[in-house]
Amino acid sequence: MKKIILLALSVMIFASANSFAGGIDTLKKNGYTLIVSGNDENFDKELTQKLINTFFIVYPKLSKEYNKNTDKVVTFFIDTAYHGVAATGDGKVVFSAEYMTKHKTDIDVVTHEVMHIVQGYGETNGPWWVTEGIADYARYKFGIANAAGNWTLPEYKATQKYDNSYRITARFLAWIEAKVKKGTVKKLDDVMRRHAYNDNTWKDITGYSVEDLWKKYSENPAI
Ligand SMILES: [Zn+2]
Question: pLDDT tens string for the chain (223 positions)?
Fold first, then answer.
């Protein structure tokens, strides 16, 4: 615990020495480089600092858990012209300046997005709902401020389906990890990265088809 606090402090001290000032900041720590820039002069500096700090806390952990060969250099761009939440491709995360300004506590958007870099599936043959479900599962497991951001996994409802993606799939994955087979997400992530997803993937990993897993989940969805 003490070690974690010290680590978080050192990240903050390190990062604050290079505060984002409207230009391009290049931050380095423990073998990882984060290049930060944006086009919003008025973007909250403290918030930029939080995005940076979150990156240096979660990215090494995600890399260690899922993919040690992930990109060592990541780019953040805070964009006034992007009106979604955030989007990631080719080692670059584009954050909506508008969304982040309106949702300053939703800091683990970083965790979800940089998980996409760690996933690095490229043109995978696997379904997109698995990709997004795993990214939200990673946010659930490794996020540093989910509660403060009012971000939780939604309770099971009968109208849901495993391929609803994002948090619904993430909760299903959390249930599989807790009740059926620990390590499923790591295996699924690996299959997706190797472009080896097929109709038997869920059965190969857990012993059950995805339909059977969902049926069991719907009958007793506690996690
Ligand atoms: Zn995503």
Answer: 444 444 444 444 444 433 445 578 999 999 999 999 999 999 999 999 999 999 999 999 999 999 999 999 999 999 999 999 999 999 999 999 999 999 999 999 999 999 999 999 999 899 999 999 999 999 999 999 999 999 999 999 999 999 999 999 999 999 999 999 999 999 999 999 999 999 999 999 999 999 999 999 999 999 9
Neighbours of ion ligand 1 (CB under 5 A): 132, 135
Domain locations along the chain: 2-119, 128-219
Other beta carbons less than 10 A from residue 38's beta carbon: 21
Give me ligand 1 centre to Cα 30, in Å. Answer: 26
Q: Which fold has domain 2-119?
A: Zincin-like (3.30.2010)
43-80 in b/e form (b: 16+ CB < 10 A) is: beeebbbbbbbbbbbbbbebbebbbeebbeebbbbbbe
- Candidates 177, 99, 166; CA nearest to 133 is 166
Q: How far is the CA of 47 from the centre of ligand 1 (A)?
A: 21
CA 113–ligand 1 middle distance (angstroms):
6
**Integer Cα distance of 84 and 39 in angstroms:** 16
Say how many Å lie between the CA of residue 88 and the centre of ligand 1. Answer: 8
Q: Is the pTM of this model over 0.85?
A: yes
